[in-house]
Amino acid sequence: MDCSESCHLKEPSKDRAFTHKPVVDEFKKSVHGAGHAPGATKDFHGGNRLEEETGQQNPSCRRCHSNTPYIKDANLERFKQELHHTETECGTCHQGETWRNQFSGHILRRLVGKNYDKMEANAMCVDCHGDHEAMAKVEIQDPETRERKKASFRFAHATDSYAKTLHGRLLAVNDESGASCIDCHAPDGFRHGILRDESKDSPTHPDRLGETCSQAGCHGYAKSPLNLGFLNTDLHDLDFLRMEDLSFALDFSRLDSAWYAAAWVLGPLGLIFLTSSLLSPLSRSRRAPVTEVVGYDHFQRVMIGGGSAKDGLWRRIRGRLVGGTPAVPVPAPLVEPGAPITSLTILFGSQTGNGEGVAADLEARLKAWGYSVELADMADYDPREIVNERLLFVIVSTHGEGQPPLPAEKLHGYLYAETAPRLEHLKFAVFALGDSSYKHFCKAGKDFDAFLQRLGASRVLDRVDADADFEEAAAAWIDAVLGCCRAIIGDTGIERPLEAEPVDHAVAKSGYGKTHPYPAAVLRNVNLNGEGSAKETRHIEIDLGDSGLSYEPGDALGVYPKNDPAYVEALLAALQADGYSEVTLGKETLSLREAFYKHLDITGLSRVLVEKYAELCDSRVLAGLLADPDPARLEGYLWGRQIIDLVEDFPIQGISPQTFVNVLRRLPPRLYSIASSMKAHPGQVHLTVGAVRYHAHGRNREGVCSTYLAGRIGPGERLAIFVQPNKHFRLPEDPETPLIMVGPGTGIAPFRGFVEEREVTGARGRNWLYFGDQRRATDYLYREEWEDKLRRGVLTRLDLAFSRDQERKVYVQTRMLENAREMYAWLEEGACFYVCGDASRMAQDVHRALLAIVMQEGGRTQEQAEEYLEAMAASRRYLRDVY
């Protein structure tokens, strides 16, 4: 059989016969599958052929797909133990251990998905390209003349040169910040169709290199014409990367490298210059030898956040010649390390306000006991002041996929940098807030805890990692902090004050808040998308009634959802549980069905939950997933699955309802950017919500709250809501300040409120809006409103980007670059720049576009442009609400 033939079984996700033909067609055009010795598909796949043909130059299918990183032995064992259908279904025709070993990988691949990381992907490439002897024998055929020539030294040692770059060094220590072979040579996912550098369609062709290097949030500056030097740097020129080591033997076969020839001409002169410089006083300032690698300077400055360690000889000489200013010294502590501790500082970094609330509760408790307390928002805190702290309590949330919240970015970067000061005199504790449904649970809190310990500070309490239902954990931590202060500062002599419950400041103001939501009536619930759209986006109008709730443009609305009744019944059936069984939640006793429907998170699958479940489940496979040092295995299982899948895949016979309930967390509220101005719609609040629906692992899946709002609640019904202030995403105080707003998709929500507020208050500042989605005909949200506002002059400019209306995809960042000159003029006039929407891609793409505009139109270098945007952020002129 041939790999390009169709299987007689249907592909589950597409409901048609599965075939590798598209992959085979792609492979045949690639550098591996074409030429005078093409890689084979017929009779060379994993089913029939076990070894490569002697002298075969290009790889067969099996050469890559039989690699251990691709089909791990541990996964094969799981396949044999757990997936019994191979015997009961496939085994009817395909019998024997030989068939199982050869073909199980195909089936397993469909079940577990991609489960290898960048390092393992590289290992597949190195399996061939790391064999220098074999690579030296390769003959490369010119696609036009058909002439063959021996592969160059550069080609034969490509893995060596890669290993010396910053990318290779990062991956060598398991840091996936580095780019893998595939990231550069097949960034669009066509890994079966890798092309030669000379091909104009290749991502590594000189004409496309800028686009390739700037993809996936990497070297965004690569597209700029100011960075031609970066693009002309050959990362596979071994001689260039080894210029600091001239001990290698002369090899005339390597004269295809211009750098190599230059080294032998200029090397002796350079050696004399370097030797003399080492004997001069200038060399004394060099603190430690630094290996200079391509990209290190940018990495040190941008990715790590510190000053560059790449202080080359010429930079030091130039500083002496022009009288350069010395580096700013790390400030010395103004406190005596041995002096008694008499006060403390509470630092909070909060995106949604939860961390700020915990900090306020802690401050109130400590002041009630007479302690001297300084409370500070990380957004307003000078990181250099940390050297003067003696006792510090840090409360910080985690945003997106492991990032610190925006207010905490400055302090996070300062402590992460190599230039951060030593803090041996500091005592600290960290309370981390997060959501266990995310991969990097409480990552920002873990970072701060690790940074402070690395800098010599002493931890006085173990870090607490609190989930979305953090209230009990916060109360216990506050008690622990109080005890800690008594031990370190001493007893204040104050008799026990009257202890108050933690303050919900929204409740104190209106009577309603997160701990006491308001049951609001839904006034209107309509679909904004047109017929034929792939999306469903709801506009929802909610009556605030006599709640006393108020909000500002930029705030969020918290909504407590209810689980889908059909899913509740399915989970009860999977557990073989009686829905009328009684369970206890806190101080409340209720039926299991009601607990599932209203109070518990019964969908979100996370490592934290799996660990709790595994303690009750006698499954070697589940224990193996948790114990595997490779997190990709567990992540592969969690992706696209829900709690019901865990229960069905690893059933626990006879588990009591209460025991299962104890594994679950409370159903957290969802926060949505408010899409209205209260001045324009008194007594109302509006939302713009995109319904989340997808199919995975044989089931239709739904977002709990988005589909609750989209399909299970209508006019007249009531929602449990509260207002969540967002003081870090506000309109400017000066109504004449120009606004640039970028909000594709549901990211448009807060800007509807912004523009309504500006119109109602008569603000004279200009308004420029960027909106984008898939198709103009069906996905132009609030079309009539925006065009009316543009016609009446409320909007000064409206730029639209619909990605699927033409062959070349157009996004909001595309429109920004098209209007670079005018955008920069607005920024220079003091405009505030706002972004709302997807954090993982859109916000990064917009940031890179903004950086390119500042470089191009302002004539600035990369570093100067970054400083320009940092200054905007510091003055609250560059604000982001991303998720």
TrEMBL record:
GO terms for biological process: cysteine biosynthetic process. GO terms for cellular component: cytosol. Residues 42-52 have a biased composition (Basic and acidic residues). It holds the Pfam family NAD_binding_1. The keyword Oxidoreductase applies. Keywords: Amino-acid biosynthesis, Cysteine biosynthesis, Electron transport, FAD, Flavoprotein, FMN, NADP, Oxidoreductase, Transport. This is assimilatory sulfite reductase (NADPH).
